[in-house]
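call fold(seq) -> tokens
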Amino acid sequence: MSKKGKILVAMSGGIDSTVAAVMLAEEGYEVIGITMKTWDYQNSGGGKKETGCCSLDSINDARSIAVQYGIHHLILDIRNEFGDFVIDNFVEEYLAGRTPNPCVLCNTHIKWEALLKRANQLDCEFIATGHYAQIRKENERYVVSKGLDEHKDQSYVLWGLSQQSMSRTLFPLGGFHKTDIKQMAIDRGFIELAKKSESYEICFVPDNDYRGFLKRKVHGLEERVDGGDFVNREGKVLGKHHGYPFYTVGQRKGLEIALGEPMFVLEIKPDTNTVVLGREDELQRKGMWVRNINMQKYANLEAPMEALTKVRYKDPGTFSVIEQNGDRMKVDFYSNVKGIAPGQSAVFYEGNDVIGGGWIQSGYDI
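ret:
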């Protein structure tokens, strides 16, 4: 029996989760590694080799390293749960004229649930992942905060974690920089792992062609939506497009329309198969509504408060006043924010701490 008990570690086959598992083993935990099979890329009809966390190569890498380090390793097939929830949502969001965030949805509603369920079966008190984030308990609530490495911080994708999930989660890498983790891998003989490139693609769209994925997934979609109108904010028709699901707010490239100046997607109207175009400055919004919020640091906001709000993963954030209204958040920015895309995640920070987050419903001008 280990001195610190049993812990279930999500191992994707990459450097971060591998070093996380090894660190915990060296700290005295009895580590059980688990690799989740979420998707078979060949089922999507794409032509590119399967890559990323769901590929056979990644699963084999995770198992090989676990065996090498004496870590018991399991493979968990969650393709049915993943497909029914994450992929159906991905398709439905585009058909609703929104831009989905499948990795956030998968983390909080699929992977954590699967990990905790298996942890219970294996009598593991905690689960751990290789995310660059930190977690602590304060005032009887669990709080996710930014990882030490600001360039690798992943707190943005963890806003959906519940208090119950956070109470049993460890992030071993949160207090380290990526360069430290690479050196740890090299020091332990994982030379090839340290050289391994990282994948930032959606696992079920590894060729990054989400339009092709939608066409394969929704029979007859292309014929159904082709030929809609590009319009300006006043409703004047500017030209024809290939179907509203194939565009996203803020998009400039690939519009295939010449209007004498750069034009951007301002809004998508699925009911009329209309895509609204405008100049870059017309993307600016003073505020937004965020729906289905999940609160972390505070159970509820009794009054408006100042927060740094991020509207996308690499967004540095904009200071704002946030005001809770049931399960929605009203956000008034101190300065205009460009390219607010309905369906993406909005995350609110107090210093380094995640106050909470939700799905962007709409932007507005004041």
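The longest helix spans residues 102-121.
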